[in-house]
Amino acid sequence: MQFDEQGFGRRLRQFRVKNHLTQEALAERIDTATSSVSHLENGTHMPSLKTLIKLCNVLNIGVDDLLADSLPVRSAHLDSDIAELLEDCTPSEKQIFKEIIITTKKTLRTHQ
Predict the structure, then answer these.
(1) Separation CA 58–CA 53 (nearest Å)
(2) From the CB of residue 101, how many other CB atoms can be counted at a distance below 10 Å?
(3) Short-list 34, 49, 38, CA closest to 12
(4) Going by C-beta distance under 8 Å and a sequence separation of 6 or more, which residues neighbour residue 67?
(5) For 51, which of 8, 33, 47, 57 could close a Cys bridge (C-beta 3.0–4.6 Å)?
(6) Are 66 and 55 in contact (CB under 8 A)?
(7) pLDDT tens, position by position, 27-72
(8) pTM of the predicted model, to two decimals?
């Protein structure tokens, strides 16, 4: 499996926002330019190992939290992603998603 720049960027942005940090504040805390954080979040650059470790320390997360999209599928991350996607949904929206998932599962399992 290759490094998923887009997935990395999406997760980085998610954890930055969760920690109430702007790109500027995060850049300052890891001693880099704001544009570097922007490039990482947009998936146009790969972080160095040194930068990756700094990011994890500042965001108080593990490396696998940022690299989950580049690692073999890990159920815990998927469960967390799905739960987060549903957090702000209304009960009727959740019901619609449930029906979509049921139908999709049936279709996938029928065509395998």
Answers:
(1) 9
(2) 11
(3) 38
(4) 3, 8
(5) 47
(6) yes
(7) 999 999 999 999 999 999 999 999 999 999 999 998 888 887 655 5
(8) 0.63
Of the CA atoms within 13 Å of residue 20, those in its CB half-sphere come to: 0
Q: What tokens were used for 27?
A: 């850049």
The structure tokens 């990756």 sit at 52
Tokens found for residue 85: 């996607």
The C-alpha torsion from 63 through 68 and 71 to 76, rounded to 10°, is 110
Residue 54 parent element (H or E): helix 49-59
Looking up tokens 């998932």, which residue turns up? 101
Number of C-beta neighbours around residue 40 at 10 A: 27
**Whether the Cβ atoms of residue 1 and residue 71 lie closer than 8 Å to each other:** yes
